[in-house]
Predict the 3D structure of the following.
Amino acid sequence: MKMTVDFEECLKDSPRFRAALEEVEGDVAELELKLDKLVKLCIAMIDTGKAFCAANKQFMNGIRDLAQYSSNDAVVETSLTKFSDSLQEMINFHTILFDQTQRSIKAQLQNFVKEDLRKFKDAKKQFEKVSEEKENALVKNAQVQRNKQHEVEEAANILTATRKCFRHIALDYVLQINVLQSKRRSEILKSMLSFMYAHLAFFHQGYDLFSELGPYMKDLGAQLDRLVVDAAKEKREMEQKHSTIQQKDFSSDDSKLEYNVDAANGIVMEGYLFKRASNAFKTWNRKKPDHIRRWFSIQNNQLVYQKKFKDSPTVVVEDLRLCTVKHCEDIERRFCFEVVSPTKSCMLQADSEKLRQAWIKAVQTSIATAYREKGDESEKLDKKSSPSTGSLDSGSESKEKLLKGESALQRVQCIPGNTSCCDCGLADPRWASINLGITLCIECSGIHRSLGVHFSKVRSLTLDTWEPELLKLMCELGNDVINRVYEAKLEKMGVKKPQPGQRQEKEAYIRAKYVERKFVDKYSTLLSPSEQEKRIISKSCEDQRLSHTRVSVHTPVKSNDSGIQQCSDDGRESLPSTVSANSLYEPEGERQESSVFLDSKHLNPGLQLYRASYEKNLPKMAEALAHGADVNWANSDENQATPLIQAVLGGSLVTCEFLLQNGANVNQRDVQGRGPLHHATVLGHTGQVCLFLKRGANQHATDEEGKDPLSIAVEAANADIVTLLRLARMNEEMRESEGLYGQPGDETYQDIFRDFSQMASNNPEKLNRFQQDSQKF
């Protein structure tokens, strides 16, 4: 180590030594100033850095708030969240950097200044003091007179002691100087090196962080380029739409601007209307029109209004089935119309004649819809008859409630296979395809909806109201039956059913299953050996009956499902004595032997559906439709009779409902001009007549003899069918009249038809009793 001040010169106390001391002391004083300044700057930098980190943290929190606000935009929310997390990491790195700076610069240099420089100053003071004492001793020794021996010895002793002390202190001082000069290099370099390593770690961590973030930022940049292009395209489209709308003549198209239809939310129509006060004065507020102008809407079979969007709607009409709507021309204001209910009336005013007409039409349409869709859910179920006598209780004939919600769910899920989704196997399905007779999970039901109603008609098992014949249809089929048809070749083809959650796989599978029918085995049969044996026995019984029986169109027939005959010997169902459409009205000798149906794997699908419809074999009918059968196929060998007519002849209400749900034409007639309604009337199948009238059958159509269904029912003296036909005709005439919705005739029509539907599906013996009673008179 190179010494700054030489120890030998220290002992000599030469001018070189003094000059060296002066140079070192000046250097140490300047070093102290530099170090003090550096420590103060370091403290200021650390304080500024902490303030920067605090501000940066607030900025980062602002980014996170913006990300939460953009929760409806996945791209913005994800990117802002990722960026805020990265900035938080950088804030943590900055905090670590400032902590290391405080330890390396501030702490170390302050310790050097306070400890080592303080020791140097203390040594300097002692050296200066002993140096002065040595000078005084030399002066005193020089001034002593020669003749004063005592004083000479005393001065010599003091000088010797002082010199000895000076040498020790001077040597210690030089040692302190040399150590300080050496130590200051290491202390300064160590603190600065530690500070630079802290920066190296900081930038290295930041580099690693942003290296990981780089690919995402690159992808986001590409996505941003696309967004810019899309935004420019949307801007052009909006400018074009703006220009197009600006050029429209609003004066002639105001109705389109004042109301809108939102079927998804159950809103039929909505818009602003003026409302006359409902108090005793019946006045319009002329001074403050905003007090009477309200936002009206027709939704959920109700007429409601509200002043502000957040206000709870005020119900004007609780049930549109009980009201009527009419023009008001006898008051001073224009464009007025009145909605009248049994308890009150509401006078409303539109802004134009077109809007008034639109509102009146919307109210009328809603009334009609309410009649079709909203059943009476407050009616009591019929009491069961006594098991000992088997007779009907005359006081238990109250109207039965339409099945809805959990009751429908529980009944349908009791069918084999219905406790899991028919297509993906998800447990507890809450939706159904009513024309296929299967249960579905909510995701598969959405895919079925996209296929179109000609492939699948979807309904909720818990939210929708179920008519009795439709619920009975669901209980006749089920997932196991339909899958045996539509998934017959699934294992042979090596195809696996999609799992829950696989949306794309589900969509492709369902489309292949029901639209393309790739898994249907065209040569399969659903009849078990026992069923085939029963069919042979039934054929033998039928051959005997054909040789001994002749049934008239007016002969009372005992049925169990609105017209199914019962064998008197063993109680089993058998085929009626006449099975083809034309044979009902032909002599016995002209009946065709082709009416006896045998199973065949190679039948034409239409003929297979035709025969299965008569046999009430719904699985076989579903199989025929899966093989491509035309639901309106006409048999040229039997007077162009259709499967629906055969279902009427077979006497099954559920079979008719299945064909109608799958697109059967309720008005398609045979060569004699008789449609399903004609045949159901001839056979006295009251439940089928009720069903066909509800499904829009034309009761005015006449056959080749000029007879319509009503005239046939009158000739047969069937009071129930006459009542249904006359009531339907009266209801039809009322609907053709303007503004007569909601009158007692409409309500009676709905109640009576609901009663007959319930009895036909759940208590067909009642219809038999009524039919027999009517024929006695």
Remarks:
- The chain is about 55% helix and 5% strand.
